[in-house]
Specification:
The protein has about 400 residues and is α/β, with parallel strands linked by helices. About 45% of the residues lie in helices and about 15% in strands.
């Protein structure tokens, strides 16, 4: 073996060993606590530093500062017990987060990142302004007086909704009418993807912007699957499966990019209140959303108004069924609020979701979820509601 071959082999072996080393150091095979030492501790410190929880260089020693950082991280993520020890529940959360990160990176390959326009001087950096541009000012050619006639006045402009119509009315849905609607959805999402690629934004909105683009790309893919079903290329079970995958992907996007963004950005954390504070803005926003683009935003359909009534659902883990009144005509009358929803991070200021006459504004998913009540021998439904996704409230009535 020549000297150059030996050098090359040495470099390759070094790189391989480094790769394996980096890969191995981020696998937690034991609980970590005060006094622990090792590369797994160093990895944990690196991770917490990336999260901006620790502000010192990793040492590989689990000291008091590391314990305080872990405890803060546990509290931020509702990990129990939040005692500062990196135990089994923390390891499970970490592994799940890394798995979701990997899935998200795979999804992001669908987006042409080279087309994202970052402009710190002239780009949009305010979430309310972004909503105005994307969901109100954007007027797609796909939505016109000729195409809107395919949708009834009380029907949300939602691709998912059309699939739910098919699922709930398997033998009695208008195939040709839904075909026409699906063509409109396909054209709409293509238009908006091109519009979004051309929109200049500031770097602070990059991830939120990516989420909206990815939403529309995934919606285009779902539209193609719906077309396959309508043309009898796939069966209903396959369509249901595609819808399930679609919803899981959107939940991942929402969790990774949207909820986190709204929680961490102090100014925009209260963006819902910017609408709630002015009833004229609220009505205008909801009117435009119902007729045009936000209704097609598959991460949720908008609702807004005052809470009229609240029903407890004790057989559904003490979920709630809330009735919403105007101004959105027609409002989704019933919204299903899962048990523990107020602790998920999807409820925003002023967190006053269970008070009659309070103003609310948010997003929901069209679905028919039963509110179950105890009966003599079994539970039975006392009403059905749409799945609530996120909501902001006023301080009081």
């Amino acid at each position: 073996m020549s000297k150059s071959d030996l050098i090359l082999l040495t470099i390759i072996l070094f790189l391989l060993s480094e790769f394996e080393f980096v890969k191995a150091e981020c696998v937690f095979k034991r609980n970590l606590y005060l006094g622990s030492r090792g590369e797994d501790v160093r990895c944990l410190q690196n991770y917490l530093r990336e999260k901006k929880i620790l502000n010192f260089s990793p040492t590989g020693f689990y000291d008091g500062r590391t314990k305080l950082g872990v405890r803060r991280w546990q509290k931020l993520n509702n990990i129990y017990p939040a005692d500062g020890n990196f135990n089994s529940s923390s390891i499970i959360f970490f592994n799940k987060e890394q798995e979701e990160k990997s899935k998200l990176e795979t999804l992001l390959k669908k987006v042409d990142l080279n087309k994202i326009k970052i402009d710190e001087n002239n780009g949009i950096g305010d979430l309310v302004q972004y909503y105005q541009q994307v969901f109100v000012d954007f007027k797609p050619l796909a939505i016109s007086s000729e195409t809107i006639k395919y949708f009834s006045i009380d029907e949300p402009f939602s691709l998912s909704y059309q699939i739910y119509v098919i699922i709930n009315n398997q033998d009695n849905f208008e195939r040709e009418k839904i075909k026409e609607k699906n063509k409109i959805f396909s054209s709409f999402f293509k238009e908006r993807v091109n519009f979004l690629y051309g929109l200049k934004i500031k770097s602070n909105l990059r991830n939120f912007h990516l989420a909206i683009i990815l939403n529309d790309i995934l919606s285009l893919e779902l539209s193609a699957k719906l077309d396959d079903y309508l043309n009898k290329k796939i069966d209903l079970d396959e369509l249901k499966n595609e819808l399930g995958i679609f919803n899981l992907q959107l939940n991942l996007i929402r969790k990774s990019y949207i909820n986190d963004y709204l929680q961490l950005t102090s100014r925009n954390k209260y963006f819902l209140l910017d609408y709630l504070s002015d009833n004229k803005i609220l009505k205008s926003f909801l009117k435009q959303a119902n007729a045009f683009s936000l209704g097609g935003f598959s991460l949720g359909i908008p609702f807004g108004g005052r809470i009229v009534n609240i029903i407890w659902c004790p057989c559904s883990g003490f979920a709630r069924l809330i009735t919403i009144g105007p101004p959105l005509p027609p409002a989704p009358p019933f919204l299903y609020v899962p048990a523990g929803f107020e602790a998920t991070g999807a409820v925003y200021a002023y967190w006053n979701l269970y008070t009659p006459q309070v103003w609310v504004l948010g997003l929901y998913l069209p679905a028919s979820i039963p509110c179950m009540q105890f009966g003599v021998t079994a539970c039975f439904p006392i009403g059905f509601g749409n799945q609530i996704l996120m909501v902001g409230t006023s301080l009081g009535p």
